[in-house]
């Protein structure tokens, strides 16, 4: 199935995924969990490369859009293209936030805030557990 953005969506077999992911990764990606700040593997990573969805490998963010937010989570000012990430309103925990999911497999990535740097002013605040860095070849 192809939605209006051009990204084909896929169904995820959660039984298979439980075997492949760590329990924390499963909870975050499939149950919209959040890793504790400063504990994920990518919050301080500066290595060049492409950050992919940990579940389906869709290329989501480029390292040259990653910035130091001070939040303890990997933060980007834009995705590779707007259609890579599905945004929706999240009213959990007594707050209204914008949730960001992988546009292909629907896995939870994190939240988006409007206090990011230029040129977009946005901060895609992601869980390391939802991402997998493919290092650039040099
Ligand atoms: Fe995905």
What does this structure look like?
The protein has a single domain, classed as Metal Binding Protein, Guanine Nucleotide Exchange Factor, Chain A. β3 and β4 form a beta hairpin. The longest helix has 9 residues. The chain has 138 residues and is α+β, with helices and mostly antiparallel strands. It has a six-stranded antiparallel β-sheet with strand order 3-4-8-7-6-5. It has a three-stranded antiparallel β-sheet with strand order 2-1-9, with no helix packed on it. The protein has two helices and nine strands. Helices cover 12% and strands 29% of the residues. Bound molecules: fe (iii) ion. The site of fe (iii) ion has 8 residues, from loops.
Tell me the series of helices and strands, N- to C-terminal.
HHEEEEEEEEE
Please tally the helical runs, counting DSSP H or I stretches of 4 or more residues. Answer: 2
User: Radius of gyration over alpha carbons?
Assistant: 14 Å
Number of domains: 1
* DSSP, total strands: 9
Distance between the termini: 36 Å
CATH superfamily: Peptide methionine sulfoxide reductase
From the spread of the alpha carbons, the general shape counts as globular
Could you describe the largest sheet, including whether it forms a barrel? 6 strands, antiparallel
Label the structural class. alpha+beta
List ligands, each type once: fe (iii) ion
| Level-2 CATH architecture | Beta Complex
Proportion of residues in extended strands: 25-35%
Average pLDDT number: 95
CATH third-tier fold name: Metal Binding Protein, Guanine Nucleotide Exchange Factor, Chain A
* Strand order of the biggest β-sheet: 3-4-8-7-6-5
Query: What is the CATH class designation?
Result: Mainly Beta
Low-confidence stretches: none
Q: Roughly what percent helix?
A: 10-25%
